[in-house]
Structures are given as C-alpha cells and as structure tokens.
Amino acid sequence: MGILHETFFDVAPDPTLACALEGVAQLRAFEPDTIIAIGGGSAMDAGKIMWVLYEHPDADFFDMAMRYIDIRKRVYTFPKMGEKAYFIAIPTSSGTGSEVTPFAVITDEKTGTKYPLADYQLMPNMAIVDTDMMMSAPRGLTSASGIDALTHALEAYASVMATDYTDGLALRAMKLIFKYLPGAYDNGQTDVKAREEMATASTMAGMAFANAFLGVCHSMAHKLGAYHHLPHGIANALLITMVMRYNADPTPRKMGTFSQYQYPHTLERYCECAHSLGIVGKNDEDTLNKFIDAIEALKERVGIKKTIADYGVDEKHFLETLDNMVEDAFDDQCTGANPRYPLMSELKEMYLKAYYGK
Ligand SMILES: NC(=O)c1ccc[n+]([C@@H]2O[C@H](COP(=O)([O-])OP(=O)(O)OC[C@H]3O[C@@H](n4cnc5c(N)ncnc54)[C@H](O)[C@@H]3O)[C@@H](O)[C@H]2O)c1
Ligand SMILES: [Fe+2]
Question: What is the 3-state secondary structure (H, E, C) of 114-178?
Fold first, then answer.
C-alpha cells in the first residue's frame, strides 16, 4: 500500500528504560504518525513508554509516576498524548489487558526503580484484539496470563472503586476464563474458540480494572515479580486466593479510602462472583471456600505450582528481601483500591504463607 514503516522488536519481558530509549531513538529518526505495539503486556507497555518519550522528550518519570487512589483526580497534569502519533495496541497474549488500560510499567535497569505510570492519557487510541495473534502463545504464557486476567476480574470486582459498569465486565470475564482457559491451555495451537473467548475475557477484565483499579494481590505480585523474577501472572496466581480470604473478613476495620460502601461486604461480593459461576455453598463462608477451591483447581489444571518455594525462589534470599517487598507493596499504586486497608505485618504474613504454603 506504499505505507512507509519501520520495526523495533527488541523488547524483553518486564521492559527497561534502556529498551524504551533505544526504541524512541528510532521513533525520532523516523517520525511516524502512527505507532503499533504488537505483543504481550511487556511489548505493549514498552510501546506506551516509547510513545510518551517520543511525544514529550522532557517528561519527568518521577512526576508522572506519582500515586493517586483515583487517577481521575490527580493534581499533576499528565502530558497530553496523541499530538504526534496515534497509538494502536494489538495483544498476543490473553492477558494483561494493557491494550485497553491507562497503565504502563517501566524499570530503570540502572537503579532498579520501577515507574508504574497511570493516566488515561496512556490509553491506546485503538485496540485490535485478534485471535490469530494469540494462537502461537506457549502453554506457560497461556496459563500465567490467563490467571492474570482472572485476578484482574476478581480484584476489580472487590475494589472500592467498583461500579455496576465494571461489575458486568468482571463477572463475564470470570465466566469465560473458567470455561475456556483449560481448552486454551490444552490445545492452544488449534482450539480457536477457546483462544477467542480468552482474548475477549482478557480485554473485558482489562476494561473492568481500567476503571475500578486493582488491589493488594497486584501490589504484592508486582514486588514479588520484581525482586524474584517470577512472571507477572504466576506471581498473582500464588497470592490471589490468600488475598481473597484476607479481604473477605467481615470484621469492621479501617477500610480503603473513599470506599463506596458503609461496612465490609467483600465476602458477599465474592459470593456474587461464585454464584454467577454456579458455585453455591450452605452459607457465605462455605460459598467462599468452594469458590477458592474452584480457583485452586483451575490453577492446578493449567499447570501452576502451589507455592513461591515451588518456583525455586531461594529461601534465604526471599527472607532477606521480605521487609523491602512488604514496604514497597504497601506503597504500590494498587493498594489504595483494595477493600481492606492492609497493615504491613499482614502483607508480610501473606507473603510468608505464599512462600511456604501454610
Ligand atoms: N499495562 C497494564 O495494564 C498491565 C497489566 C498487567 C500486566 N502488565 C505487564 O505485562 C507484563 C506481562 O505481560 P504478558 O503476561 O503478556 O507476558 P510478556 O509480554 O512478558 O511475554 C512473555 C513472553 O511470551 C512471549 N510471547 C508473547 N506473546 C506470544 C505469542 N503469541 N506467541 C509466542 N510467544 C509470545 C514474549 O515474547 C515473551 O518472551 C508484565 O511486565 C506486567 O507488569 C501490564
Ligand atoms: Fe496483572
């Protein structure tokens, strides 16, 4: 069609600032009016950062990475995007939902600092969700990113920012993931239907958490992944059911800021999720137990191990880094939307349980 184009393909998982700077040098030389980011969450996030650096070479990451419970109410004005280039995201995993979210994470490899940028300016102008792009995803990626999407739906549903709009998206995403993740895992190269439904589920869960945000499972998974190099979806898988038990405690405590309810109701919220999946117990506690059993069974079905130790994370190194992980997790952008406001000691206890499995 005579459209001039260039390709940058050198993005490693958990992208670095060095990678984004390399990409942006190419962007500045070529001066495109459209950027197409094709790949998993890592490639799409790296693409978003290159887009920011291309449009605003002087933007300060420290300012842009400032944390707000609700990024719609920030005092720092994020630079306006889209004046030089239109941004299209095409996911190849199902997934992160990055194609429809206002988030991108980049790591400064020199200092180890992670910049989790969050602003609606970072929303891609267009998302193309095409099953053909996901057929080649290996099993490990299929299961890890599938459980990541499930965690997005669960955390968005339990979030203090959840609304009727995000609830519908989250519930439907959960239903599709329970039904289709095993097929996508078993026969990913041929089961087009399972891939298609997982792609839909991932993008719907992305739309839910783009608006309702996440919770402490993601806060803790971000740090576990960063300190111990576990894939993002695996880190979430190792923590999610523990966080659900923690959040479901009905005893009144300090709740997240600006919660849209008057008393702890997360147990009931998880029961609504369970009921929509056809899981019903004798009472709410029993329903939660059955729901957690079903999530554990799904994880096992798609080859996910039980504990952090099972993934070969050295015990000594884990314990040495634990206090820093706890502090960083408490400080993560996702903590503010969690339905139960955590104490650092509680985060630590959950990390230890996830490590040893008890
Ligand atoms: N921006 C957001 O809203 C958001 C949300 C969740 C996670 N994330 C980030 O996304 C990253 C994880 O993304 P991911 O789970 O998609 O994995 P990924 O992008 O890190 O990819 C993992 C590996 O799979 C390969 N791969 C991707 N698609 C493939 C395909 N179709 N066929 C064969 N190989 C393929 C990649 O090349 C890479 O080697 C993390 O850095 C996480 O922090 C971002
Ligand atoms: Fe995630």
Answer: EEEEECHHHCCCEECCCHHHHCCCCHHHHHHHHHHHHHHHHHHHHCCCCCHHHHHHHHHHHHHHH
